[in-house]
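pasting for the record
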Amino acid sequence: MRGLLLLFCMVILSISMILIEQKNGKDDACLQVSLTQAGSRSLYQSVMDFYLPILRIDQNRQWNFSDHLYQTILDHFPVYSFALSGGLTNSDADTLTVSGETVDIDMLVEEMEEENEAYQNEKIEKIEPDVTMDFSQDSIVVQRNLATTFLSNSSGKTSQVDLDALSDFNVLLKEHYHVDSTTEVTPDQINVKNLLKKDLTLKKGVDGPQILIYHTHSQEGYSDSTPGDLSQSVVGLGDYLAQILQEQYGLQVIHDRASYDKNHRDYAYSYAGPALEKILEKYPTIEVVIDLHRDGVSGNTRFVTTIGDTKMAQVMFFNGLSYTKTRGKITSLPNENLSTNLAFSQRMELLASEYYPGFTRPIFLKGLRYNMHYVPKSLLVEVGAQTNTLQEAKNAMPPLADLLNRVLQGEKP
């Protein structure tokens, strides 16, 4: 049945391409009408190769379908409508301009691939998780005294969040969020008063791990990291964070050190999904899932702050909304835990504003799902960027652990 459905979709897509070609009176394939320069051709080829290989056919045929059918097809496959709209303008080989904003082509294609996650999960090879509960490695022990010193010197709240002011949606967005241009958020989704009602505390008296740390992009390192050495990538940060949570706060933590992006970064979320399912099935006591990343930036941008006497990387919390402006709600990426996802990141960020001003960047909201649907208390954290040093990133772990403990113990701003 699935094969027939896919074949039907391919036939409809083939017809749509031919219709679009006729509509524009061009000899070349339809997307090439609007995609210009080398970067745009790269996007076109990537999309065609991944999604629509059947379209590599001779298109020199005549059709007389109505404009109504033509428009219906465009409405159901907005990537074509978007290309034809003129939203893409001249660009170089790696980026293009969409509605005045520079977009990384590889990132755009990656997102398209992730939207097809359900199909990919049936095709890709499975990667086994690599779970550890032992955080006594020498590389972690070296950091222990630094964490203890930092946390013992913490002086409590240094400022107070004005919750009344944040009842204004525009104020809340301006001060605490960055919404990607491909999506949008409603006032109800991030209403502070409503999200503060969410119970984010950990259950008491549980025998088994309650927190999982893992890395969709395990290869992400820092300016002075040795490529391929996981102890110097975000995986090393995960070891350190787990150790602090376990030793300083008595929380039960496991760390998945598997690499889901080593061979196919584009499919990392699809590789990680089945592994997460396996871990959650084996450890049903897990309530918190933390996907630890580092950001990628251009130029010399560095996300650095100083708290006390310690220079550290800034962190950013990230949420997917399963909603884009072109598609609306993405029904193929359901997330019944979205509201609690948003409550978790918001409470972390607001408490950070009170205890460690300058530690966090605004919460980033984007259009897809990013495997945050498996448990309500899911958190995706970007620790600095590739321009930060490894030590700056490690120095961010004690305050991050402190904030996690406060939220999971029930503290609110």
